């Protein structure tokens, strides 16, 4: 049997961001925490965390943390039948795409979290990395655009989000006076989320343009919208992310006929317990547009 | 002299997210791109990129990319005096904190980018990692809360952002009926940005509470706000990030007397040229509240 005091020390260090604070939270000295981490590393024969460039769990450490979380979830189910146990609230670690997080996610899961007394540990990742985290046991579930199945996991389709090429009217007047033409695409700055974001490229291909185009890189979903609202570029956005700017006429589509559908899938471990099953039922109720 | 065709291939692969697309953009075959990357690695004696878990530059590759960017910036200055050269628009790589990106950043730099014909490559990082990227030559500038100077770089104070503990009125009524008490903090879920985010901890310490508290982890600035607006928790936010929810009465402070000031500093290489000097002058005009 593992010594769960050691795992608890590791989890507390990672969550609180340091040995000193973990000691405070657990009522232990900083050196007692260090000893527990060291004992875990001796037992495992390899490091469980690195301190540089910043505190992070090693892949082995992350697997331990995930196992620790699963045990906490089981304790929680036990605690429901034995309330006098007073078990701690577990945190559910989930990888998801940024656009879901800044649009529908919170309103759909809020009641679930409050009624079930669940805390979330959200990890924002593009789909390839999110699915890899699920495969590695680093997260309990993953919300992404890929329907690629993971052995041992279930994959539930949740619908699709519709992306439109949005910009300010002034921007469109300046860069697209004749509509979405090749000449305009060649010089109008776009906004791209990151090297893995192909939505702008797909939109351009849909318009028949396959050449070079200038773009800003902005790996933050809301920052992306702010750049567009400030007139710095155009970018593909789900309409549900920008109801305010659209209603106020700050953002509009530069090619109203063109939109892209991005499907969303929910992947989770098949035998991860009743809690994730209930969260899945909740997510199935989402109405995407 | 370096062979800049090789560096251009590396930069295009990283920006476009793949060898095939880089080939299309540069009018080369995929294998020609591979050969250029390989030639660069032979010259350097080490890899410049890794393909798993996803395409990323190695530390050595990032230094090459940064050097390539600096050369592009110099070419741009040259192009202003010799317009017939027709040099490409450079991309300025900047690390910044998420809260600035989703609030004032775009409105302050928008005119600068349009007038100077500059594209941005934004990297969202907490301050320790952002400063390390600057030290490593991976970014040209860094906006963060640390005034820790970097040798060879200038550090300009831009003011400070004020953070308030915000939640929905219903949440406050449910969890804080008697105000910010120890009993309430022990069971009211907070929202924390990540393991390095100590704002909630500092707020609790300011209220005289130093114990354990439950919290969701949400590493996305706008997702953080959405969780709070959905009634899932309270969290420290700059007032300028939530003018809408505050005006509509959706979010309010749970402890109006308590706020935290977070300073902002702009770090950039001293000899990085006139463009960064002009961007710095622009940033100095920001009015933070």
Keywords:
D-Maltodextrin-Binding Protein, domain 2; 11 strands; seven-stranded mixed sheet; 20% strand; 289 residues; two-stranded antiparallel sheet; elongated; alpha/beta; homodimer
Largest interface: A-B, 59 and 59 residues
Average of per-residue pLDDT values of chain A: 89
CATH class of the domain at 161-262 in chain A: Alpha Beta
- Separation, N- and C-terminal Cα atoms of chain A: 49 Å
- The portion of residues assigned to helices of chain A is 40-55%
CATH-assigned homologous superfamily of the domain at 161-262 in chain A = Periplasmic binding protein-like II
Describe the global form of chain A: elongated
Task: Indicate the CATH architecture of the domain at 161-262 in chain A.
Answer: 3-Layer(aba) Sandwich
Give a written overview of the molecule.
Two copies of one chain form a homodimer. Chain A has 289 residues and is an alpha/beta fold. The first copy, chain A, has a domain at 161-262: D-Maltodextrin-Binding Protein, domain 2. Chain A contains 13 helices and eleven strands. In chain A, the strands form three sheets. In chain A, strands 3, 4, 5, 6, 9, 10 and 11 form a seven-stranded mixed beta sheet that branches. Chain A has a two-stranded antiparallel sheet with strand order 1-2. In chain A, helix 10 (199-206) links the parallel strand 7 (190-192) and strand 8. In chain A, helix 1 crosses helix 3 (30-44). The first copy, chain A, starts with a helix and ends in a 6-residue tail after the last helix. The model of chain A has no long low-confidence stretch (mean pLDDT 89). The interface between A and B is large, with 59 and 59 residues.
